[in-house]
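thought: fold this chain, then report.
action: predict
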Amino acid sequence: MRALRWIAIALLGLWLTACGTLEVGVEMSVTPDQATALATVSTTGAVPPALRSRTPTSSPTPTGTATGTWTSPPPTLTPEPPTAAPTNTRRPAIRPTDTAAPPTPAPTASETPSLTPTITGTPSVTPTPTACADAWFFTEPRPAVCPDGPAVTSNAAAQRFERGRMLWVQTGDVYYVLLGSASGALRTVRGPLTLREGGSPDNRVGTPPPPGLFEPVSGFGLLWRGEVAGVDGFRDALGWAVEPEAGFQATRQCRSEAALCYLRGPDGGLLELADTTWEQR
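observation:
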């Protein structure tokens, strides 16, 4: 009997579940027919129609505490929104052995190097001689500097030697000793000449010159023999004279700042006398 009673209670619970929600703490009234049906269930085990189709008419009365009385509320059917089926999102399969290749860098356009111009040396330009207050007495070659003043024509003397020549210009009392035939070393001696002790214009070397050669005299002889104070002789450097001393008219023009003079010799040639050197022009 106890088992049948529990079955009746379980069926009643199923019926109540079908009819509405079972709430704890809500009173439920049972009609006489339902009580009889429950007794029938407990006696015979069969569920009468009253329990299968009866719809409760009572309204639920909420109470503060739970009692043993069951109250069935009217069924309120609230359709539940359909539950969206989960979308099967397929994740891309990654093979564990695959290794992402690093991106290939795009070629970078290199800047075209600019051409560096080659700096060439500026060709030297021979300066054009400027106009001088006093022109040189000759045209070629024209010096790059101007003379100190106009050309001077003076009495002069010249004598050629085996290895050079001697010149004397009266204006300025200047002696030029030129070693070599067309160019070479130059020695300039300014007068008046001072004789060393025992020196004399009439002295001789004591040895007669070879045939066709001459021993210089006067001022040339003093310098040649070494009788001038402070000046070594030029006998060994010049040799014997090849002709006697001769006078002529010399034209000379100088640039003293540059120690440069030009002189027209007895043969008409132009001599450039530059401090310690000379050259036939």
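thought: worth noting. Residues 1-75 form one domain.
final: tokens above.
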